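dude i think i finally got it to work??
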Amino acid sequence: MPIAKLDDCEIYYEEHGQGFPVIMVAGLGGVGTYWHPQVEPFAKSFRVIVHDHRGTGKSSKSKITYSLEQMTRDTLGLMDALGIEKAHLVGHSTGGAIGQILAIEHPKRVAKIVMCSAWTKADGFFRLCFEIRRELLLKSGAAAYVKATPLFLYPSWWIRDNIKQLEAHSTVYGANPDVEIINSRIDALLNFDWSDRLAEIKHEVLVMGVRNDHLTPAYFSEEIARKIAGAQLVVMDDGGHAASQTLPEEFNKHVLAFLKP
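look at this
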């Protein structure tokens, strides 16, 4: 099992393909398997790295105070462990927030950046969504929390057509998710706010939103694109928060066109 040993934790990762490295960073669920629909198409042109965030999946279940800054340090630690000086970054939701911090604080470590269904800072809607999810997590447990997650991530038609798959296993959370860790990771999202520094980003950036994303609405993507000079904005009409899973062909087309030289 490929494990990168960082100073205070172990990070599970997978590599696919050859070429310039592309690090794909998942959202709150944190597991690299989220990117299953992207791995094979992207590995035809790139060295693709996916990983389980600390606290999720097969990585160390550290009982720490989680933050986006800490998650960014872990991402850099993984790059260092794999000998990657510079990479493209494709970040979904929480991964898009990590991309913002990397671009601002460590600009030489990232090449092109894709921020999918990301956000600037928690507003009233965002906060309400996550406080509801937190209440379910703390009062009903991890299993109920995971069961309810598709309602926030996927459009109704996709849930209808994939209900048996969703009932069998989660594509967003690994086995045995920890309530305390999830709760701390929710705090990390609610505390994140680098919006005043987005104008410092000088990289080539693709910002992707989705019209029917009811967790990080498209207005967040539009705001990010306004704040980053020269950023490209693509807003898909359908697909929900996890459009990379629900409409992978359309998602992959946009991202690959942006990343390829």
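The beta strands are 3-5, 10-16, 21-25, 47-51, 87-92, 110-116, 205-210, 232-236.
im so relieved honestly
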